[in-house]
User: Fold this.
Amino acid sequence: MLLAVATIGVCSFLAQGSTAQALASPGFAARQAVWLLVAAVMLVLFAMADYRVLARLAPALYAVSVLVLALMPVLAPLRSGSRAWLPLGGYTIQPSEFVRVVTILAVAALAREYTLHRLDFKGALRLTAVVAAPAFLVALQPDLGVALTYIPILLAALWLGGLPWRVWAALILSGVLLAGVAWTWYLKPYQQERVLTVLDASRDPFGAGYQQRQSQIAVGSGGLTGKGLHSGTQSQLRFLPAQHTDFIFAVWAEETGFFGSLLLVAAYALLLARIFLVAMAARDRTGALLAGGVGTVLAVQSLINLAMVVGVSPTTGITLPLMSYGGSSMLATGIALGMVQSVWRLRYANV
Amino acid sequence: MTFVRDDLRPVQRRLAVLLAGSLTLCAGVGLRLWTLQVTQAERWQRAAENNRLRRVPLEAPRGAVTDLRGETVLDTRPAFQLLLFPEELDNVEETVAFLAGLDLAPAEELRSRFERAQRTSHLPSVIADNLTWRQVAAIAAHKTDYRALEAHPATRRSSPEGPIIAHLAGQLSEASPEQLSRNSRLRQGQLVGRSGLEAAYDHVLGGTPGNLVMVVDALGRQVSQVDQEPPIPGKPMQVTLDMTLQREAAAAMADQVGAVVGLDPRTGAVRILLARPAFDPDLFAGRLAPARWQELLQDPLRPLHNRALQALYPPGSTIKPLWAAGLLLDRVRTPSDTVVCTGGATIYGHPYRCWQAGGHGRVDLEQALEVSCDTYFYYLARDVGLERLGRWARLLGLGTPTGIEISGEARGLVPSDEWSRRARGHPWYAGETISVGIGQGPILATPIQLAVAYAALVNGGYLVHPHLVPGVAEPPTSLDIPESVLSVVRSGMERVVLGERGTARRQAPGGIPFGGKTGTSQVVRKRDGVRWQDLPWEQRHHALFVGYAPLEHPELVVAVVVEHGGDGSAAAAPVAARILRRAFGTATPSGMVVAQAPAQPQVEPSPSRPPAAGGPS
Assistant:
């Protein structure tokens, strides 16, 4: 696991260095490096902690988290249209990233009570409520991108908890219905455009499809061996939008080519595989759900981002964990991976 | 152990499904990468090449400059510039030939600019400024042939008054690499002030350039605008200059070589700053062709030289009021002490001649100023010595830059024995002191230094700090010169113009009363029996005059230097008189009554050393 994280970390630093040059803000790469180191420290610290103790603390942590989120409209200043960032002694942190980890922990702690092979209705409802509360508060900020990443937590919990097939079918059906309703009444025109343009990327090559197309050009033109670090025309000429966050993988793919991007995808695959294997080796249900939850969230997030960059899913505003620029996300991921490592470390513990 | 382990097998099965699903999707991403980066690589690479995003720098218009009454000194006007997008340049030779055909610049120069543009990577470069309509039309018409070119609307510095404000306004040039690294506001290729006001107040006038990012198609046509960051225009500025007087000074100087400086003696506010000959400031409003630059540099009259601040002249007799103030201040003489001038003096066994061959007879201090008696000041110099003369000169600001905002000012020279040993390698000769007594020899001042010294003599003894923007300079500093001293000096200077025997008495009729002092300084060693009118131009004396008005409470000091003008009273005083009349009197369009055969200065140089012959210009 450490190998995979280290590989991704190095790639992240190199890609950020490149995009920092393109955006003419040299501070980006340096700060990203610092966060990577802090995240690594977090990983080691939480690996040495006992996840079961943390699970016991989960209700308290969860209560505090929800409280902070509820107070965000009061505490956080409006920044580019949302109240998602909290100023804290010269830094700004994004509580929703940390709350996500707490929510995973809370769900895992709750799962201890359901030792049956099948989840009953009451249990499913409780799990849903536990995930929905913070997700709803985050959506209110509004930070829809992050709110969406709470959904995999619920899905993982329901799946691992053993929801009956009939219920899944009902869920999917209502999901489709809900999507239809949302499309008609809730989605804003630009969000509709995003979905439509993924179905046909050439719909509007300079409008809504612009990001999608530029990203594909970046990845594709990288070829087998890439254009070399700091030499990607797509990124250096700033064709690529949001290149230090959502589209960081496109920068990497353009500059290091198929070999480099395959290495990175392999590293993510290795990391995910490792997390799920830890979950399977866990000594108890809490450990399994904790690692499984972390794995699912990371998997969904990474895969949606990668799919977006290679042009097979709409641009959702979901970042690539460990690669994209952002301290809160990096730290939260470090903590989550630390807890997974703790599950692994204590897999044979009897007490 | 009776520990009943929770049955985790179903959970493990479901986890395995998640694991398999994740890995499958990762493999899917890998497959997609193979398609994009290997199978379709060529297609996407072509797309990347056709992807033309242009970042067009938007120059910030420079701030306007107005004079004290709000009249325009510097402005901007719309003008087209030629941008080259180096990444899109396919055929250098063809493009160069096309542009050379439009008379934009010689092919050689265009080629070197293209090379420089290509070195600065992805950003467009300005290849030429100030395109004519014909050139703009031709470039637009050939858009599809030369898509790397674009005629881009911008603004250009303009100065309605042209050359008369050239030195004051200063020049613009592209920011140097050092400037770029020092100042983050600047962009590659941006024009910045290089001299004059433009340089001194570049931080005010310069503004911040913006950016326009647009997507263009393969033919260079704009398809959409991605981003726009509008430029922040430079701020307007009001300066203390008086354009009416500046114009008058230029008209009075006509095509003579020299400088005029006008100061408000009460504050040090600069009203006139003129140097002649000048250049057309429009040449420096954009990117100057190196050939034109060389041409200006090699002009023997040195039009780029800001003579008002940078040229050093022996002050000649304009130094005498300074000595008068000094001798009274140190009580070396009383105003009524007299000297008998018989047309010269013999000091240290050498003859020093007064300019008036027949002598001035018995003169006191005021009379000595009025008639500019050299003999009086020869004896004074002999009696007080170099050290004390130097102290008086320095007291009134000579030998130190005045500190005006415009850079490049000369220090001037107030000699001393120590200076002589250091700079010339031999001790000071006593005979030279006698020459310094009449402002000759190695004593040098700039026109603005003379104006500052005279301002102190007429404003109650305050050394002013000349400035173009009010409030930036220190307030005038008191020199502690008693009014009793100053009133004698001023009275002497009034008699120069208004006295019966005054050297500038011909300037008085038909105008307002003013005071001042004439000066004539030698360029080459005087030869007996040769009239200055018969000398070649470059060997004639420099003509100086420093004047002020109104008499009671002066509001303007004007220092005039006419290089090789021959005689201060004939060449320089009329210029000052005309400016002062424009400022305070009713203008007489007929012009000045100019003396036809003025008296010649008769200064015998020190026998031990010739005066600083030919030094100043």
Remarks:
- The longest helix of chain A spans residues 248-281.
